[in-house]
Specification:
By secondary structure, the protein is an alpha/beta fold. It contains 17 helices and twelve strands. The termini are far apart. Bound molecules: pyridoxal-5'-phosphate.
Length: about 425
């Protein structure tokens, strides 16, 4: 029988042999030694697998990627230097200039900028869609050059739950893969591949690291998408790569094609590699992820219920609340809990919300989210300040929205901190 996710957190990815270190070793080396020129030549031709330079691959990273891959139920995975790099690589590995893709408009502000502004300069067009639209309405956004669909399991910061099955069907009916950023739910609370998603991404900076120590990202491929069945759409995977003596990824590497291409081409050329030292911190974080996620969800539900009962609070949004408009989706995709992030507004509007934030004692104003310590920010004046009011509205972000990331403290202390800050306004 397959181990549960709690056990996978501890045992996937790395199994030491007799007399070998119990914890994943940090391979703090840029390069590897080979006995003959031919031995190393084969690696450069992708004819043999092995390490040669840490800009492309490092064993510490691979142990950790393989743990996360096992937890997600994927076929192959890789770590990247950040969540931004993971989402960029995930899309750029299959889209090139002249291509188009579709993304939910509720995604993280950084990803929204990447897709809508920076990738546009590269000639790749993204259409942002309201993820609550029906299958029929969403179908209208596909074009002949559409190459993938992108969403977040639980959106940052509006904590809406993606209907993964609806989006997977939509993508597959149009011959393209679905990419899901699973940062907020983590594989402990949702495994998008089980619902038809093809490629999962992460900002490991958040719950996975969990202790605000290292920025990182990951891409996990299910290996399920049949590139050759849609060969004309994905020439990068289905036609020869001249930069590797004409190998064709999809035919040579099968289910491993997507990750091999992302490593061999994108890591080689962009170099957004995770530092092995940071991969080690990600490894430490993953070991306790299941235990922490449970507590984050319990605490967040308590805080959400308290907020819903305090008349000084204008509104509260948390998919774990039975009254939430995403509760049904949450129960389907995350039956054991969603995440520790919620959002709310304080009555009196934007200025009062800011005064409230400044009056908190240990709940800290920080850009970060999904951490073991309680953190909060005001997207309209922080993470999303580059967006126009129109774009803010499109992303579903109210001007008074406070993103509150419930930590692992005693929930009564968190609630008391909120109460004393409300008393001061
Ligand atoms: C933070 C975040 C990212 C970006 O990750 P970094 O590690 O900060 O680069 C991407 N997606 C989501 C959902 C995030 O919360």
């Amino acid at each position: 029988m397959e181990n549960s996710i709690d056990t996978k957190c501890l045992h996937e990815g790395y199994t030491p042999g007799n007399g070998e270190p119990r914890q994943v070793p940090i391979y703090q080396s840029t390069t590897w030694k080979y006995n003959t020129s031919d031995d190393m030549g084969k690696l450069f031709d992708l004819e043999a697998s092995g390490y040669f330079y840490t800009r492309l691959q490092n064993p510490t990273n691979d142990y950790v990627a393989s743990k996360l891959c096992g937890m997600e139920g994927g076929f192959a995975g890789m770590l990247t230097s950040s969540g931004q790099a993971a989402n960029f690589f995930a899309v750029f590995n299959i889209c090139e200039a002249g291509d188009h893709f579709i993304a939910s408009s509720s995604i993280y502000g950084g990803t929204y900028n990447l897709f809508g502004v920076t990738m546009k300069k590269m000639g790749i067009e993204c259409t942002f869609v309201d993820q609550s639209l029906s299958y029929e309405e969403l179908s209208k956004y596909f074009k002949p050059n559409t190459k993938c669909v992108f969403g977040e399991t639980i959106t940052n910061p509006t904590v809406n739950v993606l209907d993964i099955e609806k989006f997977a069907k939509l993508a597959h009916d149009h011959g393209v893969p679905l990419i899901v950023d699973n940062t907020f739910a983590t594989p402990v609370n949702c495994r998008p591949i089980e619902w038809g998603c093809d490629i999962v991404t992460h900002s490991t900076t958040k719950y996975i690291d969990g202790h605000a120590s290292s920025v990182g990202g990951a891409i996990i491929d299910s290996g399920n998408f049949d590139w050759m069945a849609h060969a004309d759409k994905f020439p990068g995977l289905t036609t020869p790569d001249e930069s590797y003596h004409g190998i064709t990824y999809a035919t040579k590497f099968g289910k491993g094609a997507y990750i091999t291409k992302a490593t061999a081409q994108l890591m080689r050329d962009f170099g957004c590699i995770q530092a092995p030292q940071n991969a080690y911190y990600v490894q430490i974080g993953l070991e306790s992820l299941a235990v922490r996620m449970r507590r984050h969800c319990e605490n967040a539900l308590k805080v959400a219920k308290y907020l819903a009962s305090d008349e000084r609070i204008a509104w509260v949004k948390y998919p774990g609340l039975e009254t939430d408009d995403n509760h049904e989706l949450a129960m389907k995709y995350c039956p054991n809990g969603t995440c520790g992030v919620l959002c709310f507004g304080v009555k009196g509007g934007r200025d009062i919300s800011i005064k409230f934030m400044d009056s908190l004692k240990f709940a800290t104003i920080a850009t970060h989210v999904a951490d073991c310590k309680t953190l909060l920010l005001h997207p309209a004046s922080h993470t999303h300040r580059q967006l126009s009011d129109e774009q803010l509205a499109e992303a579903g972000i109210a001007p008074d929205l406070i993103r509150f990331s419930v930590g692992l403290e005693d929930p009564d202390d968190i609630i008391n901190d909120i109460k004393q800050a409300l008393d001061k306004i």
